[in-house]
Structures are given as C-alpha cells and as structure tokens.
What we know:
Shape: globular
Number of helices: 2
Number of strands: 20
Strand order of the largest sheet: 3-13-16-17-18-19-20-4-5-6-7-8-9-10-11
Radius of gyration: 31 Å
Order of helices and strands: EEHEEEEEEEEEEHEEEEEEEE
Helix content: 10-25%
Number of domains: 1
Largest sheet: 15 strands, mixed
Amino acid sequence: xxxxxxxxxxxxxxxxxxxxxxxxxxxxxxxxxxxxxxxxxxxxxxxxxxxxxxxxxxxxxxxxxxxxxxxxxxxxxxxxxxxxxxxxxxxxxxxxxxxxxxxxxxxxxxxxxxxxxxxxxxxxxxxxxxxxxxxxxxxxxxxxxxxxxxxxxxxxxxxxxxxxxxxxxxxxxxxxxxxxxxxxxxxxxxxxxxxxxxxxxxxxxxxxxxxxxxxxxxxxxxxxxxxxxxxxxxxxxxxxxxxxxxxxxxxxxxxxxxxxxxxxxxxxxxxxxxxxxxxxxxxxxxxxxxxxxxx
Length: 295
C-alpha cells in the first residue's frame, strides 16, 4: 500500500527528453535559509555602522593636544590686509577694512603677543591694541591681557585681565569686574593665529573647545548645551593665490553651529597663517571678512 506521506528526496523531471534531478527541501530547511539571510543582514548592518563611525572625524579636546611653542619664531612680526567681501550681481566686491599687525616675543618662560588692528579711514582709523601674556607651553590659558582702543587722539583701556579677574569698561564709563578662571581654557583670536600652524595636519581630525574670544572688543562666545563645543577641523589641502604668490596650504575650519559662526584658516608650508575668513551674520553689510598675509 502506498504511503500517504510524500517521500522527500530526489525527483526525476523530464525536460525535452532529458532527465533532471531536483532535490526537494527537507523539513525546516527553508527556515534555516531565512535565518542565514537575516544573519547576513544583521552582520552587514553592523559592519556598515562600524565603517560609518570609522569614517567620522576623530574629535579631541584642544587642551589635550601637545604644542611645541619653541617652533614659534621669536620676535617675529607679520602684517595682514583685511577686506570686506560683498556679492553684488554675481561679482565679488572687496573694500579695505583694516590692517592687522601681529608680533611674538619669547621671554624666558613666557610668550608675549602684541597685536594691533587699525581700521581703514572709512572707519575713522580706530586702533585696537591687544597685549597678551601666556605660559610658554600653553596657548589656552592667558595670564594677562590688555585691550586699548585708540582714536581721535585718545587712548582708553577697554579691558584688562589678570589673576582670574577681568575688568571691562562699559558704555557709561564705569568699570565692571568679572571673575574668569578659564579652567577649561579659552582660545583667543590672537592665539588662533599662532596655534593653527602647530596643529597636526591629518585631514578629517577635529579639535574641540568651549570658549573663543573674538578680535576687536574681546567678546567671548561660549558653546551652549544645544551645541556643546566649538570645533576646529583639518578639512583639506588647497592651493591659494595671494597677489602674485601661490601657497600650498592646509585648510582648517572653526565653527560653532548653534551661533552660525565660522572662521576658515589657511596655513602655508611656511608655518604661517596666510589667509583667514570670517562669515558675517545676516544684515552686517558684508558677506565676509577676509585677511591675507602681506609680509
């Protein structure tokens, strides 16, 4: 008597006079196949995540990056021309804005910075003179700062900092005192121009910090909770032209996304910042400020 249970095993099929053997699946084999496919999908997903994470730029606190400040040439002075950039009718219009002169001086265990910004005549030629003193091995912890504003034959001490106290002259002529220890460090505009050439030049590497002090009035921008850190990223290798000179550069981008603040710095093979730009906020009257090395 024939069995009512179909036999599992090879089956002969006739196709155009030929015999072909077809193997029928054993019980549960389809389930195993589905499980194998799911396993491959899971493994593929995990690999994709790992590759994606490995492709992300590594982020390291700027304060943990070792710097050799001895590579800063002692008693060096450099000049930059600052212009405003405006896009009009598809054309870029540049207008003189200021001249920046920076100088370094190494004295024993201290690094002294002396920078001046002189506005163009259209801006009344006002001078912003800033002096900073740093430990010789740390560009994130200033020990002393002074900011003087000179104009119309007068000089005013706008700000001073020493022993964790900052004194600021307000619009009424009164001096306000604030306690600022900068425990996690602060990157000033002045230190940025000296520090960028000392950073490792690994494309994709990113460095983080919390405080940045702008040029001119030393306004401090602090990263907020929604955008917890400033980042400075080594972005690309670029060749730029300044006048008749060509510079092979490494480009760094510094930004605080929550405040839509971005500064781009180009460091040449001469270990100097040869160009930097700041994107201006909407309504500022210009799209960007651009400074280029003159000497």
